[in-house]
Amino acid sequence: xxxxxxxxxxxxGHVRGRWRSGAEHRAPVRRAAVGxxxxxxxxxxxxxxxxxxxxxxxxVDGPCAPVLRAVREGRGPLDEAQCALVLDALxxxxxxxxxxxxxxxQVG
Length: 108
Prior knowledge:
- It is built from four helices and four strands, in the order αββββααα.
- It is α+β, with helices and mostly antiparallel strands and 108 residues long.
- A hairpin with a 5-residue loop joins β3 (41-42) and β4.
Protein backbone atom coordinates (compact mmCIF):
# COMPACT_ATOMS: atom_id res chain seq x y z
CA UNK A 1 0.00 0.00 0.00
CA UNK A 2 1.50 3.35 -0.98
CA UNK A 3 2.41 5.62 1.94
CA UNK A 4 0.41 8.53 0.49
CA UNK A 5 -2.79 6.47 0.81
CA UNK A 6 -1.97 5.52 4.38
CA UNK A 7 -1.22 9.16 5.28
CA UNK A 8 -4.70 10.10 4.04
CA UNK A 9 -6.23 8.00 6.84
CA UNK A 10 -3.57 8.46 9.53
CA UNK A 11 -3.98 10.12 12.91
CA UNK A 12 -0.78 11.45 14.45
CA GLY A 13 1.26 9.53 11.87
CA HIS A 14 -0.38 6.18 12.73
CA VAL A 15 -3.06 4.02 11.14
CA ARG A 16 -5.25 1.39 12.75
CA GLY A 17 -5.10 -2.14 11.47
CA ARG A 18 -6.17 -5.63 12.39
CA TRP A 19 -4.00 -8.66 12.90
CA ARG A 20 -5.26 -11.84 11.29
CA SER A 21 -6.58 -12.82 14.71
CA GLY A 22 -8.90 -9.81 14.52
CA ALA A 23 -7.16 -7.83 17.25
CA GLU A 24 -6.77 -4.11 16.50
CA HIS A 25 -3.41 -2.39 16.59
CA ARG A 26 -1.86 0.98 15.72
CA ALA A 27 1.10 1.16 13.37
CA PRO A 28 3.23 4.07 12.18
CA VAL A 29 2.64 4.86 8.50
CA ARG A 30 6.26 4.03 7.65
CA ARG A 31 5.81 0.43 8.84
CA ALA A 32 2.17 -0.22 7.95
CA ALA A 33 1.15 -2.46 5.04
CA VAL A 34 4.75 -3.14 4.04
CA GLY A 35 5.62 -6.10 1.84
CA UNK A 36 9.21 -6.43 0.68
CA UNK A 37 9.49 -6.82 -3.12
CA UNK A 38 5.69 -7.17 -3.36
CA UNK A 39 5.55 -5.53 -6.81
CA UNK A 40 8.59 -7.25 -8.29
CA UNK A 41 8.77 -10.40 -10.36
CA UNK A 42 11.39 -13.09 -9.74
CA UNK A 43 13.77 -13.74 -12.60
CA UNK A 44 15.64 -16.94 -13.39
CA UNK A 45 19.08 -15.53 -12.54
CA UNK A 46 18.05 -14.24 -9.12
CA UNK A 47 17.54 -10.67 -10.34
CA UNK A 48 14.29 -8.84 -9.64
CA UNK A 49 12.26 -7.09 -12.31
CA UNK A 50 10.82 -3.80 -11.19
CA UNK A 51 8.78 -2.93 -14.29
CA UNK A 52 5.48 -3.01 -12.39
CA UNK A 53 6.84 -0.93 -9.51
CA UNK A 54 8.26 1.60 -11.98
CA UNK A 55 4.96 1.76 -13.88
CA UNK A 56 2.97 2.27 -10.68
CA UNK A 57 5.35 5.02 -9.54
CA UNK A 58 5.27 6.93 -12.85
CA UNK A 59 1.68 6.38 -13.98
CA VAL A 60 -0.40 5.76 -10.84
CA ASP A 61 1.10 6.77 -7.49
CA GLY A 62 3.14 9.75 -8.65
CA PRO A 63 0.29 11.48 -10.51
CA CYS A 64 -2.38 10.58 -7.94
CA ALA A 65 -0.52 11.66 -4.78
CA PRO A 66 -1.04 15.43 -5.28
CA VAL A 67 -4.69 14.89 -6.22
CA LEU A 68 -5.34 12.86 -3.07
CA ARG A 69 -3.52 15.53 -1.05
CA ALA A 70 -5.84 18.17 -2.53
CA VAL A 71 -8.87 16.07 -1.56
CA ARG A 72 -7.56 15.65 1.99
CA GLU A 73 -7.04 19.41 2.27
CA GLY A 74 -10.57 20.13 1.02
CA ARG A 75 -9.45 21.71 -2.24
CA GLY A 76 -11.77 20.98 -5.10
CA PRO A 77 -13.85 20.14 -6.89
CA LEU A 78 -11.77 17.72 -8.93
CA ASP A 79 -11.79 18.03 -12.69
CA GLU A 80 -12.47 15.05 -14.95
CA ALA A 81 -8.78 14.15 -15.37
CA GLN A 82 -8.20 14.23 -11.60
CA CYS A 83 -11.26 12.02 -10.99
CA ALA A 84 -9.90 9.54 -13.54
CA LEU A 85 -6.53 9.48 -11.74
CA VAL A 86 -8.19 8.71 -8.41
CA LEU A 87 -10.37 5.98 -9.90
CA ASP A 88 -7.37 4.40 -11.61
CA ALA A 89 -5.40 4.49 -8.36
CA LEU A 90 -8.31 2.90 -6.47
CA UNK A 91 -8.51 0.09 -9.02
CA UNK A 92 -4.77 -0.52 -8.62
CA UNK A 93 -5.20 -0.74 -4.85
CA UNK A 94 -7.54 -3.70 -5.36
CA UNK A 95 -5.09 -5.33 -7.76
CA UNK A 96 -2.23 -4.88 -5.28
CA UNK A 97 -3.81 -7.12 -2.66
CA UNK A 98 -2.69 -10.65 -1.95
CA UNK A 99 -6.28 -11.82 -2.37
CA UNK A 100 -6.46 -10.48 -5.91
CA UNK A 101 -3.09 -12.02 -6.78
CA UNK A 102 -4.25 -15.41 -5.52
CA UNK A 103 -7.45 -15.10 -7.56
CA UNK A 104 -5.48 -14.00 -10.64
CA UNK A 105 -3.14 -17.01 -10.31
CA GLN A 106 -6.10 -19.40 -10.07
CA VAL A 107 -7.88 -17.86 -13.05
CA GLY A 108 -4.69 -17.46 -15.09
